[in-house]
């Protein structure tokens, strides 16, 4: 008998029939003798409907009132699922954020969890009930409803699993696990049995949008075993866990991620003096434009070349800002390119294996793909290349690192 | 400066634009220096949408989960109205049932209020905020959401007004007050300046569907001055209050009510023995059919005639039940009639004035309207007549009692 936290997202509970199907799945786990906490999102479309109402009412919606409105979506789903469980003869009880004691700070719309009362959910579980919890929401210490921000239901699930020391936190999605790369790009992409938290973080931030990054960090911090599964198909999914030091030989590389949403901005011939990086990036940050990769190279005549990437949506604005920076810094030239992509190889095995970078660069060279930028972390190497080579590069790397093999 | 509780129903907050219009109205009262508590219902249609979802999930919806779902309707409205007020520069704060401390018993879907914490709302009012309250909902002592039943928002408003000792409780509706009778039937029907709680109770129960009966009882019990007003038109409305003994001459009759939703069932020639009334009405009650008027007359040969009225919707079922009762009691004949109506004259002045009944009966006789049943209370006389005479009888009585005069 295990204690399992299960989370179902908006599309998994998007209709009455889907909620009934989820109830059937939950009941199976319960009937197998497990204690079950289910965390649910709002029915798909519902949060957008509520946000639209709030937006019509106030130019800049009051954050506390906004949270009061959008939190009703999850409140409805949790009660509907409890009903569906009871209709099947499976006792259940629903909990809003305030009912279960999900205490957060006052940062409405992006609140952070401070502590969780164990008692309400424990009492329900001990009484043999399935505890059905509204994801995404909490309560502040002045008794107002808060929300954790979009995708916060994953965080709710992990936080509850951590608080209750659950045996596993299962995140049900519309994919059956985490793949070595996107199966739509590489036919031989393989579902991974396990992956480490660190690898998952790098893969998530690089575009494998299976899990909310914040919930993975949370799970890693509290060592909550996290499993990604398909909501409506059977299968073991992918277990995200701490690095397994007992495993004799972990694969060097776990997966290949890519991102086509970035654009590149380059200032050439910038005077190479202290503070120049800040002078370039400060106005970009002030304009709320997020910068991803940053590369600075030595140039000639005491100048340097400075390149960074931003989201394609921010490209035009970044170029405008940089033109005035170019003038004020007396840099030689501003160049931009929004037909690029980023491809990354990720793997904890990289730490103990040399030669990953050289294999990557050789593989791309053999396909005549020019590398425009390189950035590395302890368990990841990312390159920026022309966008048209994305599929070719991903397939070549997937094959070079032998990821299709079990 | 007064403390005023204002209640707006579902149609008054049915759209974003209407909520904004309500905000403007509330702000005017606030700007005049009054302290304001606003109680709101769900946007019209919303409660039905939520009920339909719940009904799809469970054959007999779990009452606590059901309340959890339907209460979200008011939660959304209150936050939207708070936003609309803030957008106008009028500070506001919303309160769900649990946030304001509206404690109820465990009778989900028809919960009764046990007590109200004064502090949360007082604190908001003292801080200069408009307190915007979700009607219809409360919290049980095991921390679950309860609802007061349909129309419960009126009760919420009156209960809060009583708890805070408000100067007035204003119920905004789609009519501009309580009339001497239905203006669609009698052109000269007149809006009353004031009416007593007792009269309002008799008028409400007889079909003037302006206010929830329960809220009028509540207001009468706690002597909360209650005013009915139009949500989107200016005007003084009608004040419902305790009997004004200072008024030199209150009108004998205040209003004429009618009801076309009843049907009549008669058992003729029932053996006149003790317990026969119970034998007739028990199976009707067991079948959850509500009985309104009951009349028993002395018959001949130790038999009696027994007549009662039920809602037209229950007529067929009542006739079926009574046929088996007729057989078991060995009564002579069963008769039914669903082409009847009930017309009532109501007025506290009746207590001290003789002759009201005779004026009523003479008036009907002069129009050749036959009276089929008569029932009286201290401040009301009701008659059952043929349905086709409803308008004629109402107009004749309205004129006979001189109700068009101020």
Keywords, separated by commas or semicolons:
406 residues; alpha/beta; Carbamate kinase; 8-stranded mixed β-sheet; 4-stranded antiparallel β-sheet; Aspartokinase (chains A, B); amino-acid biosynthesis (chains A, B); transferase (chains A, B); kinase (chains A, B)
Largest sheet strand order of chain A = 3-6-2-1-9-11-12-10
Query: For the largest interface in this structure, which chains are involved and how many residues does each contribute?
Result: A-B, 34 and 34 residues
Apparent shape of chain A: globular
Tally of alpha and pi helices of chain A = 13
Q: Which CATH class of the largest domain in chain A is shown?
A: Alpha Beta
**Largest sheet data of chain A:** 8 strands, mixed
Number of separate structural domains of chain A: 3
At the fourth level of CATH, the homologous superfamily of the largest domain in chain A is Acetylglutamate kinase-like
Helicity of chain A, in percent?
Answer: 25-40%
CATH topology term of the largest domain in chain A: Carbamate kinase
Structural class of chain A: alpha/beta
Strand content of chain A: 25-35%
């Amino acid at each position: 008998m295990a204690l399992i936290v299960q989370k179902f997202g908006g599309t998994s509970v998007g209709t009455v029939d889907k909620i009934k199907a989820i109830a059937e799945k939950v009941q199976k786990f319960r009937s197998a003798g497990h204690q079950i906490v289910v965390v649910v999102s709002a029915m798909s479309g519902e949060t957008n409907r509520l946000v639209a109402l709030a937006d019509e009412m106030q130019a800049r919606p009051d954050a506390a009132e906004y949270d009061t409105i959008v939190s009703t979506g999850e409140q409805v789903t949790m009660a509907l699922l409890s009903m569906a469980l009871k209709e099947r003869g499976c006792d259940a009880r629903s909990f809003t954020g305030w009912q279960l004691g999900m205490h957060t700070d006052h940062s409405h719309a992006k609140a952070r969890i401070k502590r969780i009362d164990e008692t309400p959910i424990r009492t329900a579980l001990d009484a043999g009930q399935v505890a059905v919890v509204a994801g995404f929401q909490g309560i502040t210490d002045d008794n107002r409803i808060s929300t954790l921000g979009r995708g916060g239901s994953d965080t709710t699930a992990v936080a509850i699993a951590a608080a209750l020391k659950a045996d596993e936190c299962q995140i049900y999605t519309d994919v059956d696990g985490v793949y070595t790369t996107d199966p739509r790009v590489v036919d031989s992409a393989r579902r991974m049995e396990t992956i480490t938290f660190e690898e998952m973080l790098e893969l998530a931030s690089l575009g494998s949008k299976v899990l909310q990054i914040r919930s993975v960090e949370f799970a890693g911090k509290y060592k909550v075993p996290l499993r990604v599964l398909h909501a409506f198909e059977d299968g073991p999914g992918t277990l995200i866990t701490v690095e397994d030091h007992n495993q004799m030989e972990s694969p060097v590389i776990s997966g290949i991620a890519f991102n086509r949403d970035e654009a590149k901005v380059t200032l050439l011939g910038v005077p190479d003096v202290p503070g120049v990086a800040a002078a370039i990036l400060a106005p970009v940050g002030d304009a709320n434009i997020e910068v991803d990769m940053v590369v600075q190279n030595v140039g000639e005549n005491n100048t340097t070349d400075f390149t960074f990437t931003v989201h394609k949506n921010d490209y035009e604005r970044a170029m405008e800002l940089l033109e005035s920076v170019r003038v004020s810094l007396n840099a030689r030239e501003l160049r931009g390119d929004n037909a690029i992509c980023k491809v990354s190889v990720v793997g904890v095995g990289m730490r103990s294996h040399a030669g990953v970078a050289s294999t990557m660069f050789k593989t791309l060279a053999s396909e005549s793909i020019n590398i425009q930028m390189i950035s590395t972390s302890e368990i990841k190497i990312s390159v920026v290349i022309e966008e048209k080579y994305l599929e070719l590069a991903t397939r070549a790397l997937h094959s070079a690192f032998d990821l299709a093999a079990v």
